[in-house]
Amino acid sequence: MYKIATEFLKRFFKTSTIYKYGFNWSPMYRRSTAKLIEVSDDLLFVKIRLKPSWKNRNYAGSIFGGSMLSATDPIYMIQLIQILGNDFVVWDKSVEARYKKPGKTTIYGEFIFTKEEIDTIKQSVIESREIDIVKTMNLVDDKQHIIATLKKTIYIANKAFYKEKLKNRKANN
């Protein structure tokens, strides 16, 4: 549904605008209580904000770790899907979360790719047909104190290779 809506909306809006408001209006992302507050036109930069509220506070009064995790979960994957295009398959594989201190105030996260990283990803997929990348990002408060560090492992494959891999897997089961 989201992909179909995005393709339709590209006729009227920039991809970055669709990305930002699509996330912010999407019920699955709204439940994280986070908001995308900045998205670059090339989608290489995304910034989120997570304010403490009654919906995301834990027993100790800080932002629940699950809210932090869900606020960051889909960003890199969908960012790469949009940047790389339809010839690639992108999936989140895993995340390692290290909570450094309680999030008692508004926290922020930045998701950054460089053009060089994107070129390297494309070249690596051409050579290997499938790869895993690891991206590390921090959630920080207003004073830039690190609240949590997240290491995301993301799977990226050539779409034709991936379809063949799935077909072979089904045939072997």
In short:
By secondary structure, the protein is of the alpha+beta class.
Q: How many helices in DSSP terms? A: 7
Major sheet: 6 strands, antiparallel
Q: How many strand segments?
A: 6
Q: Give the radius of gyration.
A: 17 Å
Order of helices and strands: HHHEEHHEEHEEH
- Strands ordered across the widest β-sheet: 1-2-4-5-6-3
Given helix and strand content, the structural type is alpha+beta
Considering DSSP H and I runs of 4 or more, what fraction of the residues is helical?
25-40%
Q: Report the principal-axis shape.
A: globular
Strand percentage lies at 25-35%
Low-confidence stretches: none
Overall mean confidence score, pLDDT: 92
In quaternary terms, these chains amount to single chain
Question: In whole angstroms, how far apart are the ends?
Answer: 30 Å
